[in-house]
User: Fold Transcriptional regulator from Candidatus Segetimicrobium genomatis.
Amino acid sequence: MKLILAIVQDKDKRRLMEELVKAEFQATMLASTGGFLREGNTTILIGTDEGKVENVLAIIQRTCHVREQLVSPLPPVVEPVDSYISAPVKVQVGGAVVFVLDVERLVKI
Ligand code: 2BA
Assistant:
């Protein structure tokens, strides 16, 4: 068995969950926060058989989109704040960051 851990953008979570449930996968959604942007994102846990991992990845690929986001860099601590001019920088976020892990055992009690 495998555990798929997918970090997705909040805008994609609803469609992704709908498609997973439609395809009869079991999933759990957790609210999470990205370390770089410090903004909310969603982490979805999906436990499934090894042979179905590619199906899950295909659903994630179909439903999660790459988006660009503007980030304002923080001023450096050593510079006086009024001498620092920062231009917002574009970063690409998503479609999804996916980890596929081995599961030793699944117990439902
Ligand atoms: P964040 O950490 O908020 O990162 C958002 C996006 O900012 C990233 O998109 C990446 O394009 C950019 N970024 C991140 N760190 C950067 C840095 N040091 N310098 C420049 N740009 C940087 P994604 O790669 O699509 O990641 C989306 C979210 O997935 C991340 O949100 C984080 O919550 C998670 N994530 C990504 N890689 C991860 C990893 N190796 N381990 C754990 N979580 C990860």
In short: Helices lie at 10-22, 53-63. The CA atoms of residues 68 and 92 lie 4 Å apart. The chain has one domain: 2-102. The first helix runs from residue 10 to 22.
